[in-house]
């Protein structure tokens, strides 16, 4: 997993976190604690759950602090 400040990627998606928008209601940490962990750094571990589950949780973020996009698949040149 690549980690750059508040940008987190696995092989499928990239999740971004905007701390200024976060209302700290802990929805994400309570509902998908294998991915969103308050007590460790980096606090988002995209290896902690299947991508579909992570996307579902990101969409539930009430403040819009979490967002995601699908990674572009790089074409391999033979
Ligand atoms: S669900 Fe969104 S607003 Fe709530 S703690 Fe997580 S990032 Fe912050």
Short description:
The protein is of the alpha+beta class and 78 residues long.
List the helices and strands and how they pair.
Layout: E1 2-4, E2 7-9, E3 13-17, H1 27-31, H2 51-60, E4 66-70
Antiparallel strand pairs: 1-2, 2-3, 3-4
This protein binds iron/sulfur cluster (SF4).
The site of iron/sulfur cluster (SF4) has 12 residues, from helix 1.
Distance between the termini: 25 Å
Strand content: 15-25%
SSE topology string:
EEEHHE
Largest sheet: 4 strands, antiparallel
Measured as a percent range, the helix fraction is: 10-25%
Q: Total number of helical segments?
A: 2
Q: Low-confidence stretches at least 5 residues in length (pLDDT < 50)?
A: none
Query: Order of strands side by side in the largest beta sheet?
Result: 1-2-3-4
The quaternary organization reads as single chain
Number of DSSP-assigned strands: 4
Arithmetic mean pLDDT = 90
Shape: elongated
Please give the radius of gyration in angstroms: 13 Å
Derived structural class? alpha+beta
Q: Give the cofactors and ligands.
A: iron/sulfur cluster
